[in-house]
Prior knowledge:
single chain; alpha/beta; 7-stranded mixed beta sheet; 18 helices
Amino acid sequence: MGAVRTADAVIVGGGHHGLVAAAVLADAGWDVVLLEAEAELGGAVRSAEHHPGFVADRFSAFYPLAAASPVLRALELDRHGLEWAHAPAVLAHPLRAEGVEAAVLYRDAERTAVGLDANHPGDGEAWLRLCRQWQRIEPALLRSLFTAFPPVRGPAALVRELGVAETLRLTRFALLPAARMGEELFGGEAARLLLAGNTAHADAPPHAPISGVFGWLLAMLGQHHGFPTPVGGTGRLTAALAGRARAGGAELRTGEPVERIVVRDGQAVAVETAAGTHVAARRAVIADVSAHALYTQLLSPDVVPARILDDLAHRFVWDTPVVKIDWALQEAIPWRAKGVDDAGTVHVGADLDGLVRWSADLETGVVPRSPFLLLGQMTTADPTRSPAGTESAWAYSHLPRGVPDTAAADELAERMEAVVDSYAPGFRDRVLHRHVQRPSDLEAADANLVGGAVNGGTAQLFQQLIFRPVPGLGRPETPIGRLYLGSAAAHPGGGVHGVCGFLAARAALGENGWAGPVRRRVTSAALALVHGR
């Protein structure tokens, strides 16, 4: 055995959820050690120079959930150097390749409405009604989404605000497929595309239940908070989180891959690293890792309930693999459609019917013939990302699950560039440098992105709430005492919001509080009921 260290809490993984957990526990006076396998912190919140003078966000880039997250806002990250940048327009969705019309979302709701009304009279006012509804329910809704399951105070506040009848209708609305939601709200294509395009940030098909709520949530967050990005690159968000955790006294170590969580008498008591370091945990171990890594790699199979292993092997579904391209461009992208050049985020490659066909390709194992892209114009949003007059840009799309990596990813990358060129003729002529990240590249850079899945598992209804990561309680507690799952594999899931790490830290604090023994007995009994012993 190598070096020995003892702490109140050990956090396995230094992604943003792990850093949030470290800050919360350190603020509570706990001695915290965080161990990250990679040479740098951040997980999927990192940036780097990929061409001289051009900064690329290696994974995630725009953060509407972070802007709205009560967890991240409470950390006051601006005191640790975080500064947000916004593009002139939040996002745009060109209606078709040969046309000049686009749906454009601005942070000014009235300006958004004018454009939507021009596409279809009446849709502007319908959009403003949606915005007014959001303003009424946002605090209670976010409290419902960003709390441990089952939420109580958030839904109660919604009922007080809306009344029983309207709350019931809101619940139905939240369950709608994206296609149906757009039809019920709007008469024109542009407004419907603002919802449907945002749905693609998750992996729910446009005709699947609750797919609409993802589009609605992101569209409303974009309308009221924007899609901000950190000035200087996403690594600045990680740096601020790390600074915040260290300010409370947390010890953050990189290049320390954890190989094993030690369990004794049904409780997590220590971790062991590849280098032989043994870190004992007096109170808690929090795992900011994938569910598979926790239950099938870090824990011995004899301490994991057989039902969990069976659920992971036969019922757990990853979100679809990502292929991402980073570009250094000598000039801005020459979009044909009006308003797209001002947008930080661009949804491009499909209209409403095209989104259905693209989704069908993914669900039937076909490399999409005409892929739908999420594209970022980072210099448009943050001029520090590349020299004046140039553009640092990226785009990503998806492969079907189970498709061989390299050839399919390269084929998809070519098709992605062809899509951009069809909407912006001359795009390829402006490329100075191009870097493709295949699913295997993403996983190699961040072990949590298994097979290029970036959300910790599918966001579809059958794997959300009490079904995340497997059927259970929808909470960070695990069947192993003092061990908590604090990654995107846990409720509420993917996105940069910090809530998974926060909930894990709060659960650890609760079980070590004055009512801790009772709380743990109740939780253990419930977990035994759903998972077995």
